[in-house]
């Protein structure tokens, strides 16, 4: 009788608690999201784009006057983009003004079949083992979808969960990771393949609207394939573990929605409009995103310090009658993360984030060098930045990496990855990492194009030869 009482009062509740705890631990483990491996795409050397060739492309673009010519050349030589980035084949064939649907599809397939094959071969995972496929290419929609083309090429399973994203802009790769993370909550021991790139071939703007011709200079060819899993047995093989991910969307604000949009100009030429409200929209989305992710990654002591400094500053503003109120309080994100993986949207984007987060040149180096070597490859650019850190042997076990990206809509997405093991693979940077960072990022053509500043708009003619 005493044994029965003991069993009812003590043993069974303890057993129930243990089983509940075990279940909760298993549920938590099933929600984990790991990156097993990733492969950044390096196009062939015959697609390499230097400033001289950029000048030739501008020269053969009709409808450009002196002001547009000066604007584009200045944008190119001051963009922070180097001499070894890549462009689609259509540019080298001189057909950028007359693209076909096949041009866009072939550009993507060249990337797909190179990077996916290398990634799966290296990881030892067969296409039939892939449970989830997410493809994001913002500016190319076709039927069947790009994800279906991959399924067909690699003969993937009929029950694969495939997603094809378009129109998500440069922040699309973190949206793809978020989709995978949510699928992982409901299914155990899965493999997910995320493909991120941008199709440039069908999206050349041939008009002269200054808000739209800038996009012709900013983007370069690239892409990345990532293999993710929630299988705990593969934890020791993984490279990164996702700690948190935050998405901020300001599409409800008209000025944010319209500052970065695909449209036609007054003559019916399609292109990508970058409006004057873009910096303000980006800053607003960035600040709101940081407000949400900061409490998830910053130590409590740093948050308390920030709150105290903020309160003191407010009190001084209230009683100082216009006097000095002290420095603007800033959360020190370095107390929560060791590395900053910033979207290479341009030199101004990198400088702006660096200023707002009070980052050092060491922190900004991976983004600056990626912009210089590979340019702005849209949603895939984050992974070239991450690859730079790995190639430089900066990523050590336990380190945390903050990723920040922006996209049309207007969106700001961010996440934090924890490094699971020491990483030092030279990856896509292997042929040039020893040359980075270079002594100078100054474009060698900065002086070469200086002649255009002395031209007269009334007599200007596009030259047959670039001086």
Q: How would you concisely characterize the structure shown here?
A:
Pathway: Lipid metabolism; fatty acid biosynthesis. This protein is an alpha+beta fold and 467 residues long.
Characterize the structure shown:
With 467 residues, the chain is of the alpha+beta class. The protein has a single domain (31-298, 336-454), classed as Peroxisomal Thiolase, Chain A, domain 1 (3-Layer(aba) Sandwich), CATH 3.40.47. It is built from 14 helices and 13 strands. A nine-stranded mixed β-sheet has the order 5-4-6-7-1-8-13-12-11, with helices on both faces. A two-stranded antiparallel sheet has the order 2-3. A hairpin with a 3-residue loop joins strand 12 (400-407) and strand 13. The protein is globular. It starts with a helix and ends in a 48-residue tail after the last strand. This is 3-ketoacyl-CoA synthase. Its EC number is 2.3.1.-.
Name the average pLDDT. 87
Helical run tally = 14
Q: Globular, elongated, flat, extended or rod-shaped: what is the shape?
A: globular
Structural class: alpha+beta
- The CATH homologous superfamily name equals Thiolase/Chalcone synthase
CATH-assigned fold name: Peroxisomal Thiolase, Chain A, domain 1
| SSE pattern, N- to C-terminal | HEEHHEHHEHEHEHEEHEEHHEHHHEE
Q: How far do the termini sit from each other?
A: 103 Å
In CATH, the architecture is 3-Layer(aba) Sandwich
Low-confidence stretches: none
Main sheet record: 9 strands, mixed
Radius of gyration: 25 Å
Level-1 CATH class name: Alpha Beta
**Quantity of strands, as a count:** 13
> Total domains, how many?
1
Strand order within the widest beta sheet: 5-4-6-7-1-8-13-12-11
